[in-house]
């Protein structure tokens, strides 16, 4: 007789003997031990059987333990041995699709007897998964995920989401097929959850203390999706900032670009798209997420006395389900990536967030600043996403809108300001070992300076030149200043403008000693442009006194002869030399 036939016979006889002894003496513990030993002896090692033999064995077990000869269910047997059967059959989930289906059918029959106990067993099994044996655990996990049915899921919504979400943290221990299987199972679960919970019956609020079931379910879905975005994006390490600059700022040569294979790009884009559609379907809001992160930080800063005095009708502790600030920023970066980069024909013309860019930028500043001021700045994956969000929002804001008071305005109770972000960015741009992130931090600094009014701009440049302890950042400040000077000069020479080149009062008051010689030099340059070495147009002189530069270009400039063109080129080079000398003077003063 084959081992399969022996197993079938032993199980059938074991069931009959157990039921007979229990009818005689319900307290007979020996009958329980004997049948449990029979199950473990013949079922605990699936490798003893072929695929078809496994299917036959499990079908025989199902018939033996579920139905009597008269067709009635053996509910007592299922209830008594549910945990033993569940534990023994879990390895069959990782064997073959056919055996997995039969095992899941038996689990469903057990669940009909005791749903809560079945879910408890599943949660217990989650905690026992050995991720050092990646292949086996990945298959078992994928099988357990299939066990969750929509009609019973909501009864155990919180526990289920918490146990499943924990597995996202195991991705760093996986690779190859095991990694793909677990990721697919987790994303499938996220999609199933968003299709199960009813999001249309009421308007949901994301709060620190949910006060009703709809808000509680909405909170849990937010937690699951933000965790999914954060852990998945971290596991695949998509260089979003680099891809953003490659597409929308092609003039920058980025030698450190990391090219993904076409297949990886399609898979990653498809998975992000699935998570994005799930987030849209569930109605999670970028505005509510950002506000939640701000509010939960304020809550954790309360004293124990304040927390005890805090009145709430919720008995659900949301701190057990942390929606992290890093996760929220990763989600916002994923929105930018998906909407403006990953999709064909995408662009960044429209605002991708529910709030205006200036309002969202102000709210993001305190959250982002903490990452640059802590050890989190060494986590390159999250910093890449934070820089993308800040760069995107800063580019949506208008220039010359940040005033000097705005720089020092307290944005949160812990007194975070835009100036603090600027200082943290300057330190990061000077010390980060990652070349690409240093570049993007420098671009963000330049953009923040461009958003400032003249007095705020000169204040930030002065901060970099005089108080920043990093030599490379002081050198970068010289470059930023040079770029601003060249930009203003070019604007003045290219078209009539009422914008003052040196009208910032702070600059005029503090740097008068070299601005006056610069004005004289500009006078000589404009005179040379007119090819009249010893004369100066009176109106141009008045314009210079007012702090403006208006080159007196004639209407027939296009018809100038070659000699005059050479003179103009000489004058242009001389003007650039003047800018260089200005920067040298500023650099020398900053070192004193």
From TrEMBL:
Residues 532-542 have a biased composition (Polar residues). It comes from the Eukaryota. Residues 530-592 are annotated as: Disordered. Residues 563-579 have a biased composition (Basic and acidic residues). One of its GO terms (biological process) is cellular response to oxidative stress. Transmembrane segments: none annotated. GO terms for cellular component: cytoplasm. PANTHER family: YAP1-BINDING PROTEIN 1-RELATED (PTHR28020:SF1). This is 17046_t:CDS:1. It comes from Acaulospora morrowiae.
